UniProtKB/TrEMBL annotation:
UniProt-recorded name of the protein: Carbohydrate-binding protein
Domain F5/8 type C, chain residue ranges per copy: 32-113
UniProt cross-references to Pfam families, sorted A to Z: F5_F8_type_C
Domain of life: Bacteria
Listed InterPro entries: FA58C (IPR000421), Galactose-bd-like_sf (IPR008979)
Length: 157
């Protein structure tokens, strides 16, 4: 029997508990922009806390290209925004043929508000057999092209 204690602390974000893929070993990353103080490694590697942030406003793309095709069963992402009210949209898609064609996994919008929702955590169960490329596209604000995209964490299993 498996047992889990349910926390009532509303400020604590649930920590993912799967055996996450070691992205540093198995993937190459491409990004459309990167703030030097918040590199992509801060969102993709364990034991990092500040996350990634774009250096330029507007839509941003993060691509993970796998050396060998990967079986993915879980995609876990976390976003945080505590200073600006905005509606973010993100899209995740994958390719099994090195980017020749793509299948969309999810497209979602989230409303951030400094006086309300300041974080978004998404946990997707998937059954993807031979992923060669995973792409995350972030529109930081669907109502403005002046917002900067960010990603607190991305984990894959």
């Amino acid at each position: 029997m498996r047992k889990r204690i349910i926390t009532t602390d509303k400020n604590k974000i649930a920590t993912p508990d799967d055996a996450w893929l070691d992205l540093e070993e198995i993937a190459e990353v491409e990004i459309s922009s990167e703030d030097i103080a918040y590199p992509i490694e801060f969102a993709l590697l364990p034991n990092q806390s500040s996350g990634w942030r774009a250096a330029e406003p507007g839509t941003q793309i993060i691509r993970l290209m796998f050396s060998n095709p990967q079986k993915l069963t879980r995609i876990w992402l976390s976003f945080a925004e505590s200073s600006t009210e905005r509606t973010q949209e993100f899209k995740i898609r994958y390719s099994s043929d090195n980017g020749e064609s793509f299948q969309e996994i999810v497209r979602q919008q989230w409303n951030f508000s400094p006086t309300g929702a300041t974080s978004e955590t998404e946990d997707y169960s998937v059954e993807l057999a031979a992923v060669t490329l995973l792409e995350l596209s972030i529109i930081p604000d669907i109502n403005s092209d002046k917002a900067f995209a960010s990603l607190a964490k991305l984990r894959l299993a």
